[in-house]
Write a structure and sequence with these properties.
Elements (H helix, E strand, L loop, with lengths): L1 H4 L4 H7 L6 E5 L5 H14 L8 E5 L2 H14 L8 E4 H11 L11 E3 L1 H14 L9 H13 L12 H20 L1 E3 H14 L1 H10 L2 E4 L7 H10 L5 E6 L14 H9 L4 E5 L7 H11 L20 E8 H17 L7 E5 L5 H11 L3 E3 L9 H14 L4 H7 L9 H14 L3 H4 L5 H20 L5 H11 L2 H6 L4 H22 L41 H10 L12 H11 L13 E5 H4 L4 E6 L10 H4 L4 H13 L2 E15 L2 E4 L4 H4 L6 E3 L7 H9 L1 H8 L19 H6 L5 E2 L8 H14 L9 E4 L3 E9 L6 E5 L5 E5 L5 E3 L2
Parallel strand pairs: 1-7, 1-8, 2-3, 2-6, 4-5, 6-7, 9-14, 9-16, 10-12, 10-13, 11-12, 13-14
Antiparallel strand pairs: 14-15, 15-17, 18-19, 18-22, 19-20, 20-21
This protein binds a DNA duplex through helix 5, helix 9, helix 26 and helix 27.
DNA sequence: TCGGTTCAGAGTATT
DNA sequence: TCTGAACCGA
């Protein structure tokens, strides 16, 4: 055990060995966060303070959960598989499977990923005859997920207008459809689990007493519902150990609520707050940049990274004329790093948005430098894999309409839209699944759909006693998918992927301890016989849960079973096939092969979170790009961008490069960007400019841009149609006022000044005329709260500003009336 | 049912 | 500029 705690610094040691009680660990970038978390678990177990069954650790990604388990099994002679370590969704899934009946679900419910969900919504809208122009499926999806993540069922969503009322109706209809089909979307996993605990006192108390220690990773990324779920799970005797970094909160846009950190501190009366500030990753100059930058944010919990590794090299800054030249410079620099002995995989190129990768890829490709781009299609998202999974889903559950529609005519069987529509009408009329409604069809359509159904039925029978791996292989071979792709020009890769799916099943079975003699459809969860999912007996609505928590229900018994450490099945009663299906939905798989390859790593800054590299290039440091123009108009948007920059900087171990381009091709237009304000926020002393640092930007930009600049001049003296002239504004450095403006100025060579240009220019003009507000500025209003100025119009007594108040909406306010106070 | 054309939109993303 | 989705004609 002393071994366990060796090499921990003082703060880490204190965190790891905290006595029971709630704790918040503010773990800076590179401060050994994961190490503290896993060592804490190992310490708790090895000192006998908690049994492995009485501990729950939750992360956001499967990768993080795996990492935790790997490290744990290296520290302790235990198998962490049976422990409650996993993602929020994974743990909720587990809980719902165990208590499916109490949760009003079939124990083998299937999980919809985002695109399954979107198809389900489109199907719903079509069935309901809803105008999808007026109610775009994507918007409804967003609405539903938002509501669920706020813990709101359709009945609980407040609406004030007809438009949103319709959304609520559709939300309710969507939930009904899911319930009917026995499927559950991601947000539902959490909400259902939350409701289960909330309504079932016995279950809640059981888990509250069971989980003495609850550990949460990346706490700053939790959303409202996840936080409430944790609150529900934590009993009087539980200790919640939350690890996070408010400065690395970069997921507000997908619902993360940093405020959970301070709520946690307050609501749990956290007495132990420990800051991990010693950084083991980066050299001093890099940390100086990170610290100085993040200082510009307000409302931080407060933290300062330090290292004893020395200053290291300066942070290099390079300003190129164009995006193409920026890429060219990167290539040269990467080559030089290679000559200095640095491996390719130790070099990362980071960018704010995916669109920026193309130029970089082009340059790397031309130079013959191996690279790997993160993101893109993941394994289980590939069309051929989705098709195969649909066959598997139908074998497991014939009532899965989504799966039915995906493959009823794939490979093509001559079943057209017409037949499908007939089928859907019948299904709706009699409240049947599509497969069950097929009986109503007549003629050729009946024969064709019948052939499909008997194919699925045959596959189900043939595989009934097969192991999971054999089943998957059988289905891949006999579904007709392989034969279909064999006829396609580029089908070979798809066939290989299908073979890979068989491999995935083999390793999944091995990991889960499914022997090759164990039938995959063990306890065949539902065949046509399972009426509970059909139309006849509707499953209990979630609202009815509270009725009957029978202390000796199946759930309670299963609970005991799952407590037994010897139980090889993490999830009782789930067939290997159903387990594989849920595994595939919860874990989309690797995005690309070739991970072991020695290649330069290209990714967005978001994707880089949690990673580290010897050399990091942060590219495109321009106003409008980074910070992104869309973010500047959002409440707290700029601060989130700054945190993003902070994350980017702290990825680097010894070498950090910052680069920008004066002109960039974006959306088919050449844009002329200003240098990112973030560069101005870094300490001069830590930087080394590789290109002349241009102080009086206007004059030398003019030289550098040549003709392009003249284009601007022609279109209106350089500052837009309204005639505001920077050179006549009288200031000694007129540019300084505009350079802080958000949005890049874009110029259409032939005609006129681009839209973004006009906005910036107008703002500049207003600024020059003494309107004391600028776009991007955060202001406070007595009634609407805080907002961000996104537009300025008019002058003097007529001046109006457009402000985005977030939830309160975007409003135009007359400056002569509204009282605004600057924030910051 | 497929293949070409047209059009809109273009920010970050895990489960 | 480029991509993906929607649409139309053969």
């Amino acid at each position: 055990m002393s071994n366990l705690l060796a090499h921990l610094n003082e703060a880490q040691l204190a965190a790891v060995t905290l006595p029971a009680g709630h704790a918040l660990i503010l773990a800076g970038a590179g401060s050994g966060k994961t190490r503290v978390l896993t060592t804490r678990i190992a310490w708790l177990i090895s000192t006998g303070q908690v049994s492995p069954q009485s501990l729950l650790a939750v992360t956001f990604t499967n990768k993080a959960a795996r990492e935790m388990m790997t490290r744990l099994s290296a520290m302790l002679p235990i198998n962490p598989r049976g422990m409650w370590i996993g993602t929020f969704h994974g743990l909720c899934n587990r809980m719902l499977r165990t208590h499916a009946r109490d949760a009003g679900l079939s124990p083998s419910f299937q999980i919809l990923d985002s695109s399954d969900q979107l198809s389900a919504i489109k199907r719903l809208l079509r069935a309901a005859g809803v105008d999808d122009e007026k109610y775009p499926p994507k918007n409804l999806q967003y609405f539903i997920n938002q509501s669920k993540e706020a813990g709101l069922r359709a009945g609980a969503v407040e609406v004030f207008d007809d438009y949103n009322r319709r959304f609520v109706e559709l939300y309710a209809a969507y939930d009904e459809q899911c319930q009917r089909e026995g499927v559950v979307d991601f947000a539902e996993l959490l909400l259902r689990s939350y409701e289960l605990l909330e309504r079932n006192q016995l279950l809640r108390e059981h888990y509250q007493q069971r989980f003495r220690h609850i550990l949460v990773d990346e706490f700053q990324d939790t959303n409202v519902l996840q936080y409430r779920w944790l609150k529900l799970l934590a009993g009087i005797d539980s200790s919640v150990f939350a690890v996070g970094d408010d400065d690395q909160s970069i997921y507000a846009f997908r619902g993360a609520n940093v405020a959970n950190m301070s709520s946690f501190e307050r609501e749990f009366r956290v007495s132990n707050l420990i800051k991990l500030e010693q950084n083991y990753r980066s050299h001093g100059n890099i940390l100086d940049c990170a610290n100085a930058l993040i200082e510009h944010n307000t409302r931080r919990l407060g933290k300062n990274l330090w290292t004893d590794a020395g200053d290291g090299e300066p942070v290099r800054v390079h300003e190129a004329f164009s995006d193409v030249l920026e890429a060219q410079w990167l290539v040269d620099e990467i080559r030089q790093l290679g000559r200095d002995g640095l491996e390719r995989r130790e070099v990362a190129l980071l960018y704010r948005s995916n669109a920026q990768s193309r130029v970089l890829e082009h340059a790397l490709f031309s130079a013959g430098i191996a690279y790997r781009v993160y993101g893109g299609l993941r394994f289980f998202e590939r069309a051929e894999i989705r098709h195969a999974m649909a066959y598997l889903r139908l074998i497991d559950n014939p009532d899965d309409d989504g799966a039915f529609l995906r493959v009823v005519n794939f490979p093509a069987r001559g079943i057209g839209t017409r037949s499908i529509e007939l089928l859907q009408d019948a299904a709706r009329r009699d409240s049947l699944s599509l497969a069950r409604a097929a009986a109503v069809l007549t003629g050729g359509a009946a024969a064709k759909v019948g052939a499909f159904l008997s194919l699925v039925g045959r596959l189900r029978e043939e595989t009934a006693r097969m192991s999971l791996a054999d089943l998957v292989e059988h289905v891949v071979d006999r579904s007709g998918l392989i034969a279909h792709y064999a006829t396609e020009k580029e089908g070979q890769e798809r066939i290989e992927n299908l073979r890979e799916l068989v491999n995935a099943a083999v390793s999944f079975a091995a990991e889960e301890g499914f022997g090759s003699d164990m039938p995959a459809s063990l306890g065949v969860a539902r065949s046509f016989a399972s009426e509970s999912l059909g139309g006849a007996a509707p499953p209990p609505a979630p609202e009815s849960f509270a009725d009957a928590p029978d202390p000796m229900s199946d759930g309670a018994l299963l609970l005991a079973a799952s407590d037994a450490p010897a139980d090889p099945l993490a999830v009782p009663q789930l067939s290997p096939l159903a387990a594989f299906l849920s595994h595939a939905s919860l874990e989309a798989g690797e995005s690309q092969a070739g991970e072991g390859q020695d290649a330069v790593q290209l990714m967005t800054v978001h994707a880089a979170k949690g990673l580290e590299f010897s050399a990091v290039f942060i590219t495109g440091l321009e106003e409008g790009l980074f910070p992104h123009e869309n973010s500047v108009a959002e409440v707290d948007g700029l601060e989130e961008e700054r945190r993003l920059m902070y994350v980017a900087i702290t990825r680097a171990r010894s070498r950090l490069y910052l680069s920008l381009a004066q002109t960039r091709m974006l959306h088919g237009q050449t844009r002329y960007n200003l240098r990112s304000r973030f560069l101005e926020e870094l300490p001069e002393g830590a930087l080394k400019w590789l290109t002349p640092r241009v102080q009086a930007a206007a004059s030398s930009y003019r030289e550098g841009w040549g003709g392009a600049w003249e284009g601007v001049e022609r279109s209106g003296n350089g500052f837009g149609r309204r005639g505001a002239d920077n050179r006549s504004s009288g200031g000694s450095e007129p540019w300084r006022d505009t350079r802080r403006l958000p949005g890049s100025r874009s110029v259409d060579r032939d005609s006129d000044v681009g839209r973004a240009d006009v906005t910036a220019v107008q703002a500049a003009a207003r600024f020059d005329r003494g309107v004391p507000w600028r776009i991007g500025q955060t202001v406070a209003h007595a009634r609407f709260g805080e907002g961000v100025i996104v537009g300025i119009e008019g002058q003097g007594a007529d001046a109006r500003v457009q402000i985005n108040f977030g939830r309160q909406g975007v409003k135009w306010l007359a400056l002569s009336v509204a009282r605004l106070d600057p924030v910051n």
